[in-house]
Amino acid sequence: MSAIKVENLRKVYRITQKEPGLAGAVKALFRPTYQDKAAVDGISFSIEQGETVGFIGVNGAGKSTTIKMLTGILAPTSGTVQVFGRDPHRQRVANAREIGVVFGQRTQLWWDLALIESLNTIARIYEVPPARYQTLLEQFSATLELKDLLRVPIRNLSLGQKMRAELAATLLHEPRIIYLDEPTIGLDLVVKERIRNFIKEQNRQRGTLVFLTTHDLGDIEEVCQRVLVIDSGKLIYDGPLSTIKARFGKYRTINFETLQPVNGIALPDGAEIEAKEPHKLALRFDRTQVSASQVAAAIMNQIEVVDFSLTEPDLAAIVKQIYNGALKEEIGHVTVAEA
Ligand SMILES: Nc1ncnc2c1ncn2[C@@H]1O[C@H](COP(=O)(O)OP(=O)(O)O)[C@@H](O)[C@H]1O
Ligand SMILES: [Mg+2]
Q1: Which residues are near ligand 1 (CB < 6 Å)?
Q2: How many Å apart are CA 238 and CA 243, to the nearest integer?
Q3: Of 11, 19, 235, 291, which residue has the fewest beta carbons closer than 10 angstroms?
Q4: What is the pTM of this model?
């Protein structure tokens, strides 16, 4: 049985259309007109225990709506979500024991309580056995460096300290799944790194399934073995990060330094000029059409080349493209069919 199984999941938001002014408001009250918007539009995937999944897409793509359905906060319009065989919305209490949810920049801790009081309360709510609680508290205090913060009220913690506290609180009942929505947003690099390491460690030691939404490439690269890309409510990619790299680095750039000025060079098919200076030439080529050595040979036949180098595709640029929606056409047909 998959830990998470999603089939043909849809969420349609019904938005009431209102004409301006009081007359419009009255009309909308008695004879409302609606517009339906499919925020999540028929997505399917399964995730096994122990997987680390990055869930990415532009703003408004449907990430949060999906997470809300996975966690049971929202009921789907149609389709199904199963988490360990349960319906997370109908069986919310049973589901809550299995999952932990962290939203960046939002805290579920009690503002006025000292961190340790919050943690004690959570341990009691989830009926964590005292000895186990002690062990976990020591572990989390060490790895998340919480020791000096335990007596501090949540309101006095910095954003990074709050996020570390939040993680400890979320994992006290040792959920089998953690959902993280932008956990590193606004944090400095050191804290980001600590949080990523902590998440990875949970995954390694306990086999915790990690489902992570993030704009930060570092989070994905360091934590996630698998990536789901959502666009306009549809899943457009499901596969390993390395495949995105290999496949969507379809274009490469080769840089030449030449002895003579570059002029009137004939380009091989599939290559185009990216940049040109008197003694430099950068060619962008489609490696599904032409190989680097073919491009190099074609140029060297025409002009004396002093040096040349190949630029590898930059994952940051690829993910940025995904976030710009620019990759959709290229991705469109790809891995959904493969999955
Ligand atoms: N409560 C709501 N009512 C109406 N429309 C909503 C609601 N929540 C989200 N939407 C719309 O659904 C789409 C997906 O939103 P969301 O799931 O928040 O995307 P993401 O988290 O990827 O930015 C957006 O167009 C958004 O405006
Ligand atoms: Mg969102």
Answers
A1: 13, 15, 37, 39, 57, 59-65
A2: 10
A3: 19
A4: 0.76
